[in-house]
Structures are given as structure tokens and as C-alpha cells.
Amino acid sequence: MIAGLLALPVAVLADGHGFDPDEPPPEGKGSVYGTVTARPHKDYVKKAKELGSKEDYDDNDPYAGSADGKVVYNDTMVNYDFADVYAILLNPAAKPGKVHEVEAEGDEDQKPRALAVAFGDIIRIKNATSKPLTYFLADINGDSIQEIPLLPPGGSADMTVELVGDLELTTDEDDSLITAVLSREGLQSQRVRSGSTYAFPNMNPGEYDLLFWFWRLGILKRKVTVEAGEHTDVDGVLSVDTVVR
Amino acid sequence: MIPKGKRWLLFGCVAVFPVLLIMITVFSVPVTALAASVSGKLKVYGGKKLKNIIVFLEPTNKKAADAVKKYKVTQKGRVFDPAVTVVIAGSEVIFINDEGREIDHNIYSLSRTRKFDVGLVSKGSELVVDFPKPGIVKYYCSVHKNMEGTIIVVPSQFYTLLDKPGTFILENVPEGEWKLNAAVSHRRYSASPVDVAVSGPSVDSVILQISRKRRKRR
Lengths: 245, 218
Known about the structure:
The structure holds two protein chains of two kinds. By secondary structure, chain A is mainly beta.
């Protein structure tokens, strides 16, 4: 019962927010949809499939192999099946102001690990640790920085995003509390579980930048053309071998 | 057998070589003699007790570093060792899979300084990656979640690692114009580079400041 309740939000996330590609879009509008997947390096996938399934593997086994054509993971590995990946559409017509929540839960533990935000969005930060924290947002490729005043234990505060780029949200006192932040103008995003469907319905016709992002693997960029009355299907596969070229 | 017409060429090479050798020796002596030490104090403003700071000199004429080397990073027990490596720009790092069992790794980096993917590295493999330009390179194993490391690429062989702010000394620095700088891992802090002119036996009491970055928007 509890497991069923917990699974519900994931199911809602995983269906592209109720998007149905068999339904025509509203008049004069189009959409972009598809699946976004994170997976291990193609050479690893190949080897795991060659090894096949193993009944009694544990964390000391170098390979958990594969089962039903899918890579099986153990606890030492990056489990790409559980990766939270982002599908992002850069839409100049999108309005900022969305609220994103970040919580420092304890030493070296801050959630979520990654956040896609638009310039002008709000990051609501909660300090659930036992120490005061001074949060700041920094451009990892430059010197730009913004901060909020000292946040006491149990306190919460809003930070309006004023930077664009590849950023990190961390603290003066403890830089192991860290969230990777991808910020762009006009960013619309959906965070989905790897292998799930994303959808951006009711789009005006035109050309857009579509990004797929998993903080550990980086960004995959696509150009997409939305046409009135059409659903445009774009799938993305995030992996070291597709991102690093 | 060397053709007749080319014997003069060979003689020329044989005759010129000792002269070149003498010239290299003669002209290299003053450079060695003018090598100096650069010393001073690293100060941190903003109250933070920073650790593991690299103080380095960068040639202002942007000439490539001469003392390139090969460095080793091993993977054993599903960790990178060392986790942090300081290398001179132009050097190579040999990634060695030294696991006791058949554990494969895939080392990669998304850093702007050096993006790379070495592919799948099996036990006993050695793969080389070059690091041509200065900067900080974070790298990961795409297979194992706790495997991450950092390579700090400095622009010259004149650097020192300080475990905490304090005094530093850089030895055998050739004469010329240099920029003294520091690399800090904490994103809130950065150094203010200092121009250093080396012309005598030593340059002392140089103050290098690290301070909190000010609020700066794009």
C-alpha cells in the first residue's frame, strides 16, 4: 500500500505530465515530446550484455552483468535506471518565477543534487542542518556570484536566480553541501526518471533549443522545429560516449 | 656508403655540432646563474580557514612550460589515487587500472579545460591523457558512483602546495616577468594575482591575497 502511494508521483512524472501524442494539439500549436534516457558507456553496456545474468552477485563483484537485455547494477555503481534527468526547452516566451526547493539535510547531504532553473526563477532554500549557513550561487566557469544572508538552523529563504550559466549552489561554511544548477533564459524543464517520457505541449510554432541534462553526464543539445498541428518526437540518450565528443 | 656530393654536408654537421654544444653551454650558464627564489606570504581575507592552496607562477609572455612530466593516477579499490593531482601544463597523466580483480573503469571529464573519455579501462590497462592548458579538471568514473578526482593544471613548474595559508617559497625561478597566483577549490574564494619581476637572486616578502568573491552579476 505504502509502496503503491510512493510510486504514484513517479508514475505521474513518468508519463510526460499526461501528454498523449495520439491527441491532436490545440489549433495553431505544436508540441515536443520523447523519451530521455541515461545509460552507462556503450563499451560497458556491450560487456555487461556479453556476461549475461548472474544469480548471486554482490557489491564485490566487478560486474552485475545484465538481465533481459538491461544492465544490472550493484551498490557501488552509478545506477542509471534511477537517474533524475532533465528535458529542457529554451523558450523566449516562457515566464520565470517557478519555485524550486533545496534542502540541506545534514553534513554533506543536500537535495536535490541538480536543478534546472530559468533566470528569474526562485530557489527556496531550507537549512535543516544544525549550523548557520551562508548560501551562494556561483558560475563554475567564471567569477559571477550571488548570495543570500546567513540562514540559521531551521531557517528558510528565497533566492531569485540572477545568473545564467552552469552554476553551483553551495555554502561558505561547508562546500560539500552542493547542488549543480543549470540556469538559462526562458528555460522550461521537466525532471523525469531515466527512460521516461517528457513533453512540452502547446508550443508556438518555431525553432527551439532542446537540452537533455544529467548533472553527472553533462548536456546533450538538439535543435527542434515545432510546427502547428504537429507533435515532434525527439529522444535523447545521455551517456559519456554521446556527450563527450 | 655516403655519396660524394653529400660528404661535405656530413662534415658540416660534424664540425658544427661541437660549436653548437659550446654555444648552448655558454649561453645556458647565465640563465642558471640568474635563477632566483620568490617568497612571501599567502593571506586569506574573509575569515575562512582554507586548505590545500596551490601557489604558482605564470610567465607573462605565455610561453609554454618547459618542464612537462608524466604523472600517474591509479584506480584501486574503486577510488582514484591520488584524488588530487597537480600537473604542469603540457604534461601527461597515465591512468592505471591497478585493481586486484577484473574491475573495469571508464574515466571521463566534462571540464572546459580538458574534456576526455578514455573508454573502458580493464585491469592492468594504462591510458594516457594530455593536459595542454592550465585550469582545473574534475573527472569521474562513469561506472562507479564514488569515484571522482581532480587534476589541477598549473602553467609552470614553479608551484607549491600549502596545506594552509602562510609562507611560501618558489625556488630556481628564471629571470623575467611573472604573475604570482593561487588556485583554491572553494568557489567563494579567489586570489588576486601579483606581478613579480625576477632579476636578482631573490624576490622576497611578496603578499598574495585570497578573498571572498564579491557579488558580481553577468
